Amino acid sequence: MASMSLVFIGPPAAGKSRAGKRIAQRLKSSYADTDKLFSRDHGAIHEFIPREGEPEFRRLEREIVAAALRDYEVVSLGGGAILDADTQRDLERDEHTVILLVASPAAIEERITGRTNRPLLSGIDSWIATYETRKPIYDRLADLTVDTSFRPMWQVVNDVRRYLKRTNSPLVTRDQGDDETHDTPEVEETAEQ
Ligand SMILES: Nc1ncnc2c1ncn2[C@@H]1O[C@H](COP(=O)(O)OP(=O)(O)O)[C@@H](O)[C@H]1O
Ligand SMILES: O=C(O)C1=C[C@@H](OP(=O)(O)O)[C@@H](O)[C@H](O)C1
Ligand SMILES: [Mg+2]
């Protein structure tokens, strides 16, 4: 049971999954990616949504998010998980440190080009429209916002670690190391969505 969680929110392809996994390794913390938990339990998201519809996806996603926020120290949410009112209430609670990752359309375009496994994201125009609609919620819930555009992941991770140290987060007590100064080679996962 996690008494306090570090939670990554933000639009699709902002880097929530990658950053969350990386910082959890660094903090020696338990880690969950709610999209991964969803596909483990219900099959690939890009097949589920066309078949069952987005409302059913959101209903099941909420169950998974609620359990993950209870059980894991570091959690990467799917981009639209914050649309759920109960999830918004959960994230407003003090025991959750909420990190909003954002990126410019130019940076996102580079990341999503040629990728078709995000069912609600058909291109950069739909990404911009989705982000604009959700922005007030993302901004309201965020304790810290980090722009990941054209920045290596180690810099993003350091920004978050510095914030945790500055705010005396209990999560940082197992992180005794210096700042990271490079990216460790990472095998690109075929994002199972
Ligand atoms: N800072 C970054 N610089 C370059 N590419 C990145 C960066 N962060 C993420 N990516 C790439 O963008 C894609 C989406 O990252 P991911 O962590 O899955 O985002 P999210 O979980 O927010 O949708 C992946 O291909 C990932 O390797
Ligand atoms: O923004 C969204 O509505 C979604 C984002 C995806 O997660 P990522 O933000 O990790 O890509 C995934 O949960 C699903 O495809 C819906
Ligand atoms: Mg993700």
UniProtKB/TrEMBL annotation:
Required co-factors: Mg(2+)
Q: Which reaction does it catalyse?
A: shikimate + ATP = 3-phosphoshikimate + ADP + H(+)
Sequence positions that bind substrate: D35, R58, G79, R134
> Could you say which EC number(s) this protein's record lists?
2.7.1.71
What pathway is it annotated to? Metabolic intermediate biosynthesis; chorismate biosynthesis; chorismate from D-erythrose 4-phosphate and phosphoenolpyruvate: step 5/7
Keywords per UniProt: Amino-acid biosynthesis, Aromatic amino acid biosynthesis, ATP-binding, Cytoplasm, Kinase, Magnesium, Metal-binding, Nucleotide-binding, Transferase
- Identify the enzyme class: transferase
User: What broad class describes the main subcellular location of this protein?
Assistant: cytoplasm
Asked whether the UniProt record includes Kinase among its keywords, one would answer yes
Please list where the region (Disordered) is annotated: 171-193
Q: Does the keyword Ion transport apply?
A: no
Which cellular component appears as one GO term in the record?
cytosol
User: Where can this protein be found?
Assistant: Cytoplasm
Q: Which PROSITE patterns match?
A: SHIKIMATE_KINASE
Q: Which Pfam families match?
A: SKI
Q: Which InterPro entries match?
A: P-loop_NTPase, Shikimate/glucono_kinase, Shikimate_kinase/TSH1, Shikimate_kinase_CS
The Swiss-Prot or TrEMBL record describes its family as follows:
Belongs to the shikimate kinase family.
Q: How does it assemble?
A: Monomer.
Any idea what job this protein has?
A: Catalyzes the specific phosphorylation of the 3-hydroxyl group of shikimic acid using ATP as a cosubstrate.
What is the protein's given name?
Answer: Shikimate kinase
Q: Highest lineage ranks of the organism?
A: Bacteria, Bacillati, Actinomycetota, Actinomycetes, Micrococcales
